Amino acid sequence: MKAGLGLGALTAIVVGSMIGSGIFALPSQMAASAAPGPLLIGWAITGVGMLMLAFVFQTLATRKPDVDGGVYGYARAGFGNYIGFTSAFGYWVSAWVGNVAYLVLLFATLGYFFPGFEGGATVPAIIGASILLWIVHTLTLHGVKTAAFVNVVVTIAKVVPIVVFIAIAAVGFKAGLFTADFWGKTTQINGEPLGGTMTQVKNMMLVTVWVFIGIEGAAVYSQRAARRKDVGRATVLGFAGVLALLVLVNLLSYGLMAQAELAGVADPSMAGVLANEVGSWGSAFISIGLVVSLLGALLAWVLLSVEILRLPALESVMPKALAKENAHGAPATALWLTNLCVQALLLWTLANESTYTNLVYLATSLILLPYLWSAAYQVLLAVRGETYEKSRGRTRDLVIGVIALAYAVWLLYAGGWQYILVAAVFYLLGSALYLWARKESRLPAFTKGELVVVGVVAVTAVVAIALLATGRLAVL
After folding, report:
1. Which of left, alpha, beta for 130 (phi over 0: left; psi -120 to 50: alpha)?
2. Domain 7-413 classification at class level
3. Any idea where the domains of the chain sit in the sequence?
4. Membrane-spanning regions, if any (predicted)?
């Protein structure tokens, strides 16, 4: 398919995939974690860490224009076919499980208007979610450009209620409330103190682990970009815009309600905060905004999940069938496989709602590993001096890469070691697809180095299964 996604479409993919439901729950989640002072410190650290990661994707898009697929391509180019496969496979599983999360939460939100959908896991809600899933499926089958255009429109629509909230909050902001207990020394949440400054900083940073997922969206779509340099620009623009929205929503909320009261607002807490300020219409307005936001995130992640299968299939890392495109240029086989998995997990949630919630955390941990490989690849290029033979910036890129790598390691730690253990089980089972792809292309399965990696994955998976069987590891 002829590449043709411009800067606007690529930026919309980044913003659309990053803004889902997290920002709408941010006021109460952060209020339960930290006072304004530690919050500002935490946002500064998080902002720098994620900015370095954004710079990694920008730099790699420029220095390695021949590497397509973002997190998959960088992992494969730097560390071999099998690591590239694990990056793509983990990203794909994370993407479609995340789509189940969006669908369930979307219909739970619609329960505000239609009681039959309340909770998001009722029979009417699952039927509605299934219908919506296949509408999005049909739209995507009509071409990636068509779906990307719709995503631009939906992204703009979902940002509007957030901007309205920020405007109203800025007008109603009370500096006295914001500074009442700036360092959280006296505030108690559910009878418990917030702890010291660094404890609060750590707690708020744990909340931010999930809100920046999607920053790599433009890099994943690099092959379809009209201009390669727009990939890096879209990544930085999208990140900067979303960071500004997150920080403003978060900090302004502290000037509208006392922190302890804010921490007790039910999710989506942005709706409760606005209702407290302007009346009941505020809650309805934000609920509608959340529905639109979830629709946009669903569409963005459908696009990402099929693209992350298509590219490896072109390079004998996934079965060739997953690269097959229809007359509209949409990877049809990958799309069918992805959405059939979404449909199956939707049905599973009817009987296993709590299991579903934990799977979402697992999925998020799976998507963090590709960030680590991308940052490590930039460090590798800078250490080797590769692509720097006739240009400057090697030291700068090495520093950026090291900071981004350290932050990616911290994200994995914060996400929970138990999910990393279980991720190994997914990688081991998914390796069947890799072996299938190598066999049909008549290529060697593993190099000697990759055999070591496979051995580590297998041992980790066995340990995880043993811990699960004895009840010492519980994520499901």
Report:
1. alpha
2. mainly alpha
3. 7-413
4. 43-61, 82-115, 121-141, 148-173, 204-222, 234-258, 278-306, 327-348, 360-383, 395-413, 419-437, 449-469
